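lol forgot to send this yesterday, sorry. struct tokens for the thing we talked abt
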């Protein structure tokens, strides 16, 4: 099994390590109240779109605490998947971006300051 799927396992582990490093950096910078957005890859599956995009198609912003508490989706049916820091499924390449306080994220994943109310 593992020799047949080694590339899929390696890709998923590398993406997971990248995502977790980003979450840990958010915690280092902003504490447990750090926030991140999971940016869907081009051609993302319906599950990633459901979990990581809002009804208008914009990336959702999550607290790092929420993503870490959700653990992984290993052993869950796809209808029960939760947003996590770890890849949602094998070959998942959805990225993770830190969203500093006072910032939001655009549909294409760019982090921008919030417009100040005047």
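and heres what i got for the seq, position by position
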């Amino acid at each position: 099994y593992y020799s047949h799927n080694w590339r899929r396992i390696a890709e998923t582990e590398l993406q997971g390590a990248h995502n977790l490093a980003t979450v840990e950096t958010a915690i280092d910078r902003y504490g447990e109240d750090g926030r991140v957005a999971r940016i869907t890859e081009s051609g993302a599956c319906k599950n990633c779109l459901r979990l990581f995009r809002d009804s208008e198609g914009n990336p959702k912003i999550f607290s790092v605490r929420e993503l870490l508490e959700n653990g992984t989706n290993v052993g869950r049916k796809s209808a029960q998947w939760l947003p996590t820091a770890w890849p949602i499924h094998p070959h998942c390449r959805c990225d993770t971006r830190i969203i500093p306080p006072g910032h939001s994220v655009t549909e294409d994943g760019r982090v921008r300051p919030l417009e100040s109310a005047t």
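The longest helix spans residues 6-30. anyway ping me if u want another try
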